[in-house]
Amino acid sequence: MTFRFTRRLLLGSTFVATGAILTGLGFARGQTLSTKGKIMLNSYSPISRGLVEAAAFPLIEAIHGRRSRRFAKGASIPDGPLAYVSSEAPQALDETEQMLLISTVAGNTGWANLFAHHPGYKGKLPNYTTAAGGRSFPSSAGFNTTEFFFTDDTGVYFLPTRDMTPASTDGSVDLKGWAEAHRSRIVKLADGRMNIPAAMPYMEGHNTWCANVPGSTLIWPVADVAQHVILLLLYLVQNGTGIYDDVNGRQIPGLERFAQRLNMEVAYPMTFLEQVAMTDVATETGTACYAGALMLQALGLGGWMYTGINPFVVLGASDNPAVPGLGFQYRMLDGNPLPYFTGLPGVFEAHVPPHHASMRAAVEAVVERKFGKGGPFDTDQGGPYRENAAVRGSGARIDAEAIEIAVIMAEYVFSTFGRFPATAPAVFINTYLQAHRLDTGFYDTHFGPEAYLQTHADHDSNWS
After folding, report:
1. pLDDT tens, 310-319?
2. What does the angle CA 137 – CA 106 – CA 281 come to, to the nearest 5 degrees?
3. Which of 49, 50, 114, 307 is the most exposed place for a label (fewest CB within 10 A)?
4. Residue 360 pLDDT > 80, yes or no?
5. Per the omega criterion (within 30 degrees of 0), is the bond before 376 cis?
6. Residue 416: enclosing H or E segment and its boundaries?
7. SS3 82
8. What are the CA-CA distances from residue 146 to residues 130, 159, 266 (Å)?
């Protein structure tokens, strides 16, 4: 009872705050919602009530109110205790709320903070960070190897943001300008919703009635695990060690030449390093989707984050011409039943051949991403510091010997196993976020009074 009472108080506070914004500040004027947060809505004209409520929605309410709400308008459950047929037609998301949602999942949110200190770097900054901009979700060591795809009734799209340069601001955020900056980066890959048949093995049976349904927006992150492993190799080298081949039980030939630099007594097993990379990118992609799941509550949208769509189908290995997925390149390797994906040329290319001429080229491309134009250690790059050039220029350089050591390890893995990484995918996809307009009739029929939030109840009127 206490929890219910608290929830009601929180909702009441939200409505009071929203009312003050709508009436006290003027609904059509769009003012600063919070002197602390500095979220500006004045670029929108007119401003929908849903947008104002989303901007004022309490984080604690989003956390406690988050649920997987799978029943969209137009959906049906044919039998069982929760049988229900929607009386409403599927309806797409409002353009503004869709862009706000996508930008929340994938968005650049300003300048990343570099690692401030490491006692082994002798007055230089650790050079782990790989992107100058921060995003709406954390990334291990600031590697940022993930990009985003989505589909709706109109098409299949790619939204690249991992190397997006933040716009300079005075600390305030023009929400429309921020969303439009992301919209301008969207690349359309195909017309119409991605065809993912509502049947196994394309998706799990429990999702066949609710996944990727008409009207919905389906978003999924894709990680370049190969790049992530290269970054981890560089990290190890700069901290005085490397990897060994624990699959074949041997050291990597050539590393013995660098005994003065590498302590191989503390070397990582190759498979463990690849497990670390997989854990890192799984965390990165999962938290990105979770940010979107919280935004669903503020927007009043149904949906949920899940893993029950076949990733090989989505990437393009269905063996069904009618189900092309994204069309990523892949090959089948001897002794492995799973496809080894490498990328979509010109769109998302993992740091492996054939998208790079060699593993040496892939390693050099990663170093260039750090220190080249627009990278986090580019002295001409803007940033959050009072002396950006001085701070960025103090990043420890990755010297030619360190690059050579990383190349030796990467080339050994590729030549020995015919792939890179050896035991992990080069391209990783696992988690999806779906958003749709909720059919509240289903919940009113089968659930108690707290099955959805007030933002869900008011969604259509707030976003009309």
Report:
1. 999 999 999 9
2. 55
3. 307
4. yes
5. no
6. helix 400-417
7. coil
8. 12, 11, 29
Each residue of 263-293: pLDDT tens digit?
999 999 999 999 999 999 999 999 999 999 9
3-class secondary-structure state, position 433: strand
The pLDDT of residue 37 is above 90:
no
Return d(Cα 183, Cα 102) in angstroms, integer.
9
Confidence of residue 419 (pLDDT cuts 50, 70, 90): very high
**Residue 273: which of 307, 299, 239, 319 has the closest Cα?**
239
User: Residue 103: in which H helix or E strand, if any?
Assistant: helix 95-106
pLDDT at 24: 34
**In the numeric block, which tokens belong to residue 344?**
């979509």
Lookup result for tokens 């990733």: 311
Q: At what angle do helices 225-238 and 359-371 cross, to 10 degrees?
A: 70
CA 201 to chain centre: 25
Q: What is the DSSP letter of 159?
A: E
Cα–Cα distance between 340 and 338 in angstroms, integer? 7
262/257 Cα distance (integer angstroms): 9
DSSP per-residue string spanning 162-193: TTPPPPP-SS-EEHHHHHHHHHTT-EEEEES-
Query: Does the N-terminal peptide bond of residue 354 adopt cis geometry, omega within 30 degrees of 0?
Result: yes
Residue at token pair 């039980």: 249
Tell me if residue 352 falls in helix, strand or coil: coil
Block residue for tokens 């350089």 = 397
Alpha-helical regions (H) of 199-325: 225-238, 270-299, 311-315
Which of 25-29, 194-198, 404-408 is predicted least confidently? Answer: 25-29
Q: How far apart are CA 398 and CA 311, in angstroms?
A: 35
What is the SS3 assignment for 81?
coil
Q: What is the DSSP letter of 283?
A: H
Q: What is the pLDDT of residues 139-174, one digit of tens each?
A: 999 999 999 999 999 999 999 999 999 876 677 889
Dihedral sign of CA atoms 249, 250, 251, 252 in order: negative
Residue 17 pLDDT > 60 = no
Sign for the pseudo-dihedral over CA of 447, 453, 456, 457: positive
Q: Cα dist. 85→98, 409, 443 in Å?
A: 26, 57, 12
- The mean pLDDT of 62-81, rounded to a whole number, is 98
CA-closest candidate to residue 221, choices 346, 64, 113, 326: 326
Q: In angstroms, how far is CA 70 from the centroid of its own chain?
A: 21
pLDDT-based confidence at residue 45 (cuts at 50, 70, 90): confident
Length of the chain in terms of residues written:
464
Q: Quick one: tokens of 292?
A: 């979107």
CA atoms of 350 and 224, how far apart (whole Å):
5
